[in-house]
Amino acid sequence: MKKRTAELILQDPEKFAHHDRVFLNNPVVMQGMGLAPLVVVATTGQNGLMLAAAVALLLVPSRVLACLLSRLVPLHDEDPAPETLQKKLLPRALVYGFSTAVVYLAVYPILNMLFGTGLLSLGIYLPLLTMEPLLTYRFGRVQETVHKAVSKGLRITVGYALLLVLLGCVREWLAAGTMFGVVVSRPVLPMASMPAGGFIVLGVLCAVWRTLARKYKNYLTSEARGLMAVYRQKEGEPEDE
């Protein structure tokens, strides 16, 4: 761990964890976003992989495009007046919806080339990704910079894609005893392939994830304290003659 990282952790552990969208602050596990594709469609490892690829191709480009287009109706204040919200939230919502739809039209041929008719198993939930809160929830917030849109978009993409593939593999194993079509055991929980079973499996997975994230955050804080104590001790030692 670098000294700068240790200083950031000790200065505000919650803020440091907030920026980690992959594990410590995964948007699905910690905020309950993007649940519909997870519980309805991510029933197999293949479906999870297809959804992860779609998110990877959609999220960052649409976020950057929306970031640029939303400058036509900028929203500068964190807590704007009601009059300002009435004038700007609707056009900003349309901008974000339009930008994700445009990116989707460009991305679909790529997905079709990669997965072919397998995309049909995703049904309407593939085009519904254009209205996924993970992509659109920023329209009512302060204007993002392009750098922040790319950086945050990449972190959210990795976190969401990881959970999609993980949940798909776990549900496939529980329901059919297979993983990406390869038999690994007997079926354990056939209802895992159903939306109700998806909620149960996702709930258990989130509980385990949150526990591990809390333990890892405590570990990082402890390591940062120890590292800074070592640095302070070294800085306090007299220089050798």
Short description:
The protein is mainly α and 241 residues long. It has helices at 3-11, 13-18, 27-31, 35-41, 45-69, 82-115, 133-136, 146-176, 195-236; strands spanning 178-179, 182-183. It contains nine helices and two strands; from the N terminus they run H-H-H-H-H-H-H-H-E-E-H.
Give an overview in words.
- The structure is a single chain.
- The protein is mainly alpha-helical and 241 residues long.
- Helix content is 68%, strand content 2%.
- The chain is built from nine helices and two strands.
- The chain has helices at 3-11, 13-18, 27-31, 35-41, 45-69, 82-115, 133-136, 146-176, 195-236; strands spanning 178-179, 182-183.
- Strands 1-2 form a two-stranded antiparallel sheet.
- Strand 1 (178-179) and strand 2 (182-183) form a beta hairpin.
- Helix 1 (3-11) crosses helix 9, helix 5 packs across helix 6 (82-115) and helix 5 (45-69) packs antiparallel against helix 8 (146-176).
- The longest helix has 42 residues, at 195-236.
- It is flat, with a radius of gyration of 22 Å.
What order do the strands of the largest sheet run in, or round the barrel if closed?
1-2
Number of strands: 2
Low-confidence regions? none
Query: How big a fraction of the residues is strand?
Result: under 5%
C-alpha Rg (nearest Å) = 22 Å
Number of helices: 9
What proportion of the residues is helical, as a percent range? 55-70%
Report the sheet with the most strands, covering strand number, pairing sense and barrel closure. Answer: 2 strands, antiparallel
Overall geometry: flat
Q: Tell me, rounded to a whole number, the average pLDDT.
A: 85
| Secondary-structure-derived class | mainly alpha
Distance between the termini: 30 Å
Give the helices and strands as they follow along the chain. HHHHHHHHEEH
